[in-house]
Amino acid sequence: MTQRFYSVLVTLLVCTLLFSACTGKSPKATFYSLEVLPVSSPPTLLSREIAIAVGPVTIPAELDRKQIVTRDTHSRVRLAEFHRWAGPLQDSITAVLTAELAALLGTDRVAPRNRKDLFPFTHQVVFNINRFDGRLSGDVLLDVTWSIKKTGISEPLIVRRSEIHEPVANPDYAKVVAAQSRALSKISSKIAAAIKELVQ
Questions:
Q1: Residue 111 has what pLDDT?
Q2: Within 10 Å of residue 191's Cβ, how many Cβ atoms?
Q3: How many CB atoms sit inside 10 A of residue 63's CB?
Q4: Cis amide prior to 56 (ω within 30 degrees)
């Protein structure tokens, strides 16, 4: 009888613990994606003979993760466990650059470099990010080295390094991502202007 009582008691305790684990409130992750911003001025139509490959896009190892990365100090990073990217950051940056360059150049002949099945590329944009993070109470820094090459020629036509700072409106991860989107929009404008100069 005593043994049966203890067995029932243990079963009740286990069920109680399992129920508590299932109904306990734990923080839910919020997912974010970079935004393609609208073109503020009418685009210059690029010749149909020009087709742009975007990539490769490389990012630092500390950014190649699901969590959004911010900085406490110049050398110390913070990983936001419950604020995450909806997909791989590298792919998201490539998609945004592709969409914004197409809009700025007034052409649909811009695609990620792995989509060579769409049309033959004449030029390629290579995008190497050195830093792309920020502070919740500060600004976002996009430090990137980018180049433009002609397809089939290893020597770049131009190589440039750009640093873009964008203020974070409020200490909030949505505002950090919004600032990162604005930074990408600005670098897209610089690249589009360089492409126009090269192909005119």
A1: 97
A2: 26
A3: 18
A4: yes
Domain ranges within the chain, ordered by starting residue: 29-199
Q: Which two structure tokens, joined as six digits, stand for 9?
A: 């008691």
Task: Kindly tell me the sign of the dihedral angle through the C-alpha atoms of 107, 198, 117, 112.
Answer: negative
* Residues of the chain falling short of pLDDT 70: 1-26, 74
Report the run of H or E that residue 98 belongs to, with start and end.
helix 89-105
Dump the DSSP string for 129-193.
Answer: EEEEEE-TTSEEEEEEEEEEEETT--S-SEEEEEEEEEE-SSSSHHHHHHHHHHHHHHHHHHHHH
| Fold of the domain built from segment(s) 29-199 | Rossmann fold (3.40.50)
> Which residues does residue 134 pair with via DSSP β-bridges, in sequence order?
140
pLDDT at 7: 55
Interval 93-103: pLDDT, tens:
999 999 999 99
Element (H, E) at 84: strand 77-85
Q: In sequence order, which residues have a C-beta less than 8 Å from that of residue 177 and are 6 or more positions away?
A: 32, 33, 34, 35, 68
pTM value is 0.84
Inter-CA distances, 48 with 92, 107, 108, 157, 189, Å? 26, 8, 9, 20, 20
